[in-house]
Amino acid sequence: PNEEAIQQLYIDPKEAKQASDIMTEALDFAQKHAEHTNDYKEYSKQDGVVLYFKKFKDTEIGKLELTIPNPDSYDDVVSMLWDPNGAKNFDDKFIKGSIYRVYDQNLVIIQQRYKSLIRSWQRYYHALANKIELSKNKTAIVLVSSDMNDHDGGKNKKYVNPFVESANSFKPDIDSEEDIRNGDLYKMYINLVAFFIEKEADCVKVTYVSSIDPNAPYLTPASFIKKIIVKKILTLVKLKDIFKK
């Protein structure tokens, strides 16, 4: 945790237990949807990286599979993807990440900020983030938003997570910055984001499952929103170059 996490106050053990239970449900959901099923349709393929989409409960889920041909990079890949500021290495729209709650070293609430493609505003989200060691050579990192009370001054809808039901009663109080309280930022929500990072004999395989609610302004064309989401997912392709031998 960095110095921005200092706003840590007493953590209610009930809140910590609830956070942990939510992430158990989220991991279970993510594992099911990381499996390849026929409802995933190929959207694009470049340099051996395949992007798929499917609809589940009327909500789109994207899945990206990529191979990093350097098995020794496993720990570094996990570290970069777990770091709230790790995205600065591959996403040029990323501004900064902060930790807002620490339940334990592998379960936190993060805030991330990005430059918006719509107007010159920043956009941000808060989400629970959990790192789970599934085996000696496989790690999962899972993110989930809920309707947290971050005192956001914008006219935002009441957010309901379409996939992780237990998240919908999780409403911790977040002591957010003035620009959020003034409603100066666009708010996004993470329905579910998951990385499965697996070390194999000659490579590291990354499976990325992503469903983001961009909470875009009314009348924004769906095709434009899809384009933004695709662009964001494909920033991960840069991991291949970052970690090549």
UniProtKB/TrEMBL annotation:
Lineage: Eukaryota, Sar, Alveolata, Apicomplexa, Aconoidasida
Superkingdom field: Eukaryota
Chain segments annotated as transmembrane: none
Protein name per Swiss-Prot or TrEMBL: Fam-a protein
Organism: Plasmodium berghei
Cross-referenced InterPro entries: PYST_A, START-like_dom_sf
NCBIfam families (UniProt xref): PYST-A
